[in-house]
Amino acid sequence: QESTWGALVTGPGVGVGPPRHDLVALASSDPAAVHPSMALAAKQQHSIISTVFGSDIGCTFWRPNAARGEKGLLEALHTRKHANDTYLLVSTRPPQELSCNFSTPDHRLFNINSDAYKVSRTTRAVKAVQDIDDDLNMTGRDMKNGLRDALPLLTTDEYHIMRYRDYSDWAVGHFWKTAKKDSVMGSKYVEKFFAMRVGTEPGALIEITEAQLIRGHEILVQQAINSPLSENNDPHNLKSFALTTDQFNTLRSLADPPPTTNANGQPGANPNNSTRRSL
User: Fold this and answer.
1) What's the whole-model pTM score?
2) Are 197 and 249 in contact (CB under 8 A)?
3) CB count in 10 Å sphere of residue 262
4) pLDDT tens across 7-20, in order?
5) Strand intervals (E) in 79-216
6) Dihedral of CA 75/78/83/85: which sign?
7) Beta partners for 207?
8) Rounded Cα distance, 110 and 198, in Å
9) How many CB atoms neighbour CB 139 within 10 A?
10) Could you give the percent of the chain with pLDDT greater than 70?
11) What is the rounded CA–CA span in Å between residue 31 and residue 225?
12) Greatest CA separation found in the chain?
């Protein structure tokens, strides 16, 4: 199946974008604004599926093509399980996936295909200094002050919490108990939840639980409401917000669901999440 990644081509830029349903409407009304495959899928959905069976935003996500050796994030995590890896570097994932398959907790497109999320802030700072041309307007004092102001950011981490969808056959088969659809005629997918750590180290994706996502979102909404910056008072505008390390650590108590037992009464794995990891 061909990939559908319209947002990567001419859609919203890096960072938090519009609600997924708005992307579908855009593809239906203005085919030139998105990738042709996305536009076609959206037109078909609007003319048939959404009218009869309800809305489906599946056309706004990239779908890995197994024939080309592509794997979704969930399969990639599963293959690394034997090494007890607790995260995946953002830079190791396909650009199409980073651009289209992550969403904010309130289902807005979150395009993370950028060095802002892939490399450490120290690396970015060094590169920025190397790229500075001789600027008559920038004195040594100006540069020193700028570096001093930026230093606290170079030594701290922050965590963006996100939804992730995987439409691959592997994911739907492996997590068949929790696979779902947006509509009767829609494609099956698996939704998992991640925190993206950025800061002192290269960006990394860490799996979290839905309970952690919900609680983290509550923290961000309250943070937005209490912000002294007027433009950030809208609790739905979370573009500039992320959890601090301390805030993220408060989610640890929600990391794992209650233990389950098998038919013999012995402790068993949680059937809904075979790739759960500690934070």
Assistant:
1) 0.74
2) no
3) 9
4) 333 234 577 877 78
5) 88-89, 102-103, 108-111, 158-166, 190-198, 204-208
6) positive
7) 194
8) 15
9) 10
10) 58
11) 37
12) 76
